[in-house]
Design a protein that fits this description.
Layout (H helix, E strand, L loop, with lengths): L12 E5 L2 E4 L4 H8 L9 E5 L5 H12 L12 H4 L11 H4 L9 H6 L7 E4 L10 H4 L2 E6 L2 H14 L8 H9 L8 H9 L7 E5 H6 L1 H11 L6 H10 L2 H9 L4 H4 L21 H14 L11
Parallel strand pairs: 3-4, 3-5, 5-6
Antiparallel strand pairs: 1-2
Helix pairs in contact: 2-12, 11-12
The chain binds adenosine-3'-5'-diphosphate.
Length: 306
Amino acid sequence: MAGEQEQPPWKKTYFFKPNYVLPVIMEKHNIETKVKNFEVRDDDVFLVTFPKAGTNWTLEIIDAIQHIENIDILKERSLMEKVPLIELGPSTHPDLTSEGFTGIPSNVDAYLNVTSSPRRIPTHLLPEDCPTQMLVKKPKTILVDRNPKDCLISLYNWHLSVALLEPTTWEDIFAKYMKGHTIYGDYCEFTKKWSKYKNEPWLLWIRYEDMKKDHKGSVRKIAEFMGKSLTDAQLDEVCRVTHFLYMKKANETIKGRETLLRPEGVWQRKGVSGGWKNTFTVAQSEMFDRDYDEKMKGYEHLKYKF
Ligand code: A3P
């Protein structure tokens, strides 16, 4: 059984709680104090995702909607600024400094100093680890769900791409996922816990797959949820700058790329639904399905059909 005494599964990770692994760039004390007590504003917009569900994409859509009158400012942001998870930093962990990171700043502190509004705040945390006020004040919150098999494939490639995580093999990460030892824990737990709020008016629950199928319709839905009414031309403009290929090209030369990503690393990797079929073996897929069916009992309405 996993416990806090157990060795973390990779360098640069630790057990935040039993069976729940976080990278060392997410500092336990910071999450339990500053993030937990973070003062939420009524007009904040939160984005909740399981890792690799399309956080960067959705945040870019939110930003493009918000800055539609001055969309070029999005180009000025560095890669780290593109997905500023509230739980990230501060960290001067030796595993990071030995690899040349000079220290990761605290995002929660940065959010406290943001004077413009609305602030848009992404997180991968479970509801119980989010700011207490979030579930009291109920600011607008967008949750993006994605086929967990595709999330796992994407996470595997993320380990190969990002300098803050240790490279792994597909077999190894699959085995760790089955034990609940990939970063941010178990997808099913994340989905089930957040589903408690799925029908609340303050939460918009969307699927990556639906965003892929109907990009413009999804942008419209997100904009309406944010209280912004965009013209047809503006919707097209948001779609243009958040198209997979546009974002892929922009991220190739973005500021801060060399800090976050390995030279061969990519964020806009494939951007497709169902790509897991190229990597899972039949045996792995069946093992995954059994585990998924078992964990999602009683939550059939949230399940993906593989
Ligand atoms: P793949 O690795 O399957 O390609 P996150 O931002 O949460 O880390 O999610 C990363 C995943 O979202 C990656 O999936 C990435 O390619 C995909 N993604 C990023 N930008 C996208 C876009 N504009 N359209 C579609 N998918 C995108």
